Automatic annotation (TrEMBL):
Residues 8-189 form the Actin-like protein N-terminal domain. It holds the Pfam family Alp7A_like_C. This is Uncharacterized protein. InterPro entries: Alp7A-like_C, ALP_N, ATPase_NBD. It comes from Mesobacillus boroniphilus JCM 21738. Residues 213-351 form the Alp7A-like C-terminal domain. Transmembrane segments: none annotated.
Length: 391
């Protein structure tokens, strides 16, 4: 039997963050797809000069979990160059969208075919059989609605095939993906685990463990506010909201297009403009460095006010809260605006992660810790069960 490989995958609305094995592979791919045909035209330089599969992900996906089965897609950076590219829409449920599954399967297949992993899974001709133990998550709102069970059942017990078409290095390879186990965690709970525990699930943040805290996780399409007390997430008081940063990013993209005539490929490009260290909130227009501060400040301040209202309402219902941590990619985008509002208004005890990568990768890291812990425990119990009983 093929050994199962650990995979922790955060299907974020902006991008996919994934960690594999013993932290031996990380992948970050923009969450954007475009329907395509089998024989996409190839520009010579695209294949010869980059030779990076992540720049040319072109796949056919076959899975009983998909509503639209056996379709062909450009994925990630390649999809941004298409006129028909799609990103997840505000109001959609992550657990019910084909796009979530396509991105998940593509990410796992890229791990399975990588040269570093060529000896991990059995390969017959051009077909690789890959087994994974997966840790992933859904917004709190969807978990409360019971959608995690349905999402898990789509994955377990079926074979999901990714066929690489016109993809550098991997063209012609097929990956059959099976799941030995899938754990779907609520995103707020995962953030708490990541805050207080290391990779071995040993407590590293003793100051936090017995405090009453909120964790406001701002994503692309949703916001989760986890309420932590007595070392547990209070499921009744925790809340999920249908409010994320995607709509604001789309609005910024549209206004830059109409005001400056500049077409940005995806929301990821907007995030890069807003958060980069140098030339933040600037774009190039006809070769000239141009500020878009007026657009970004107006739109993001409006969203920050809505996020701040959510904080205020949840804190009012949990008045003995000691601190709120803001996490997720959306928190990185809104950090300065929320800080300014808080300084001018209520002055809550709030904290952001200065290390932007830590905030953006927080969910993937948490899923990794949780699924690795499950994996080790299940290996230990199956080993104990197989040992002969001593008389």
């Amino acid at each position: 039997m093929t050994k199962s490989r650990i995979a922790a995958v955060d299907v974020g609305n902006d991008s996919i963050k994934a960690i594999f094995g013993e932290f031996d592979n990380e992948l970050n791919i923009p969450n954007i797809i475009a329907r395509d045909t089998e024989d996409r035209p190839v520009i010579g330089i695209e294949e010869l000069d980059t030779k990076d599969p992540l720049e040319g992900i072109h796949i056919r996906v076959h899975s009983p979990a998909l509503k639209d089965n056996n379709a062909i897609y450009r994925v990630g950076n390649l999809a941004t160059k298409s006129d028909n590219a799609t990103e997840l829409d505000p109001g959609s449920s992550k657990s019910e969208e084909d796009q979530t599954l396509i991105m998940l399967f593509a990410t796992l297949a890229l791990d399975a075919v990588s040269e570093e992993n060529s000896k991990l899974f059995p390969k017959s001709k051009n077909v690789i059989d890959a087994n994974y133990t997966l840790g992933t998550g859904l917004p709190l709102r969807e978990v409360k609605e019971g959608k995690d069970a349905g999402y898990r059942s789509k994955l377990v017990g079926s074979v999901h095939q990714v066929e690489f078409l016109v993809t550098p290095k991997y063209q012609g390879l097929k990956v059959n993906i099976k799941f030995d186990e899938v754990k779907v965690y609520p995103e707020g709970f995962a953030a708490y685990i990541n805050l207080v525990m290391d990779n071995s699930l040993k407590i590293i943040n003793k100051d936090l463990i017995d405090r009453r805290i909120l964790i406001q996780d701002i994503g692309g399409l949703s916001t989760d506010i986890a309420v932590i007390k007595n070392r547990n997430v209070d499921d009744d008081k925790a809340q999920g909201f249908n409010l994320g940063v995607s709509e604001a990013l789309e609005q910024i993209r549209e206004e830059i297009r109409s005001k400056h005539g500049v077409e940005l490929d995806s929301r990821t490009d907007v995030v890069e403009i807003i958060t980069r260290k140098n030339d933040r909130n600037h774009i190039m227009v006809k070769g000239s460095r141009t500020s878009v501060h007026d657009i970004t400040d107006r739109i993001l301040l409006e969203l920050a006010k809505k996020q701040y209202r959510l904080l205020r309402n949840v804190w009012a219902k949990n008045s003995q809260t000691e601190i709120c941590y803001f996490v997720g990619g959306g928190a990185t985008v809104l950090k300065e605006y929320i800080k300014t509002l808080n300084n001018n208004l209520d002055g809550y005890n709030i904290e952001f992660f200065e290390d932007e990568k830590e905030s953006i990768w927080m969910m993937a890291n948490a899923y990794y810790k949780l699924i690795m812990d499950y994996f080790k425990k299940s290996e230990k119990s199956s080993k104990a069960a197989s040992e002969p009983v001593k008389s």
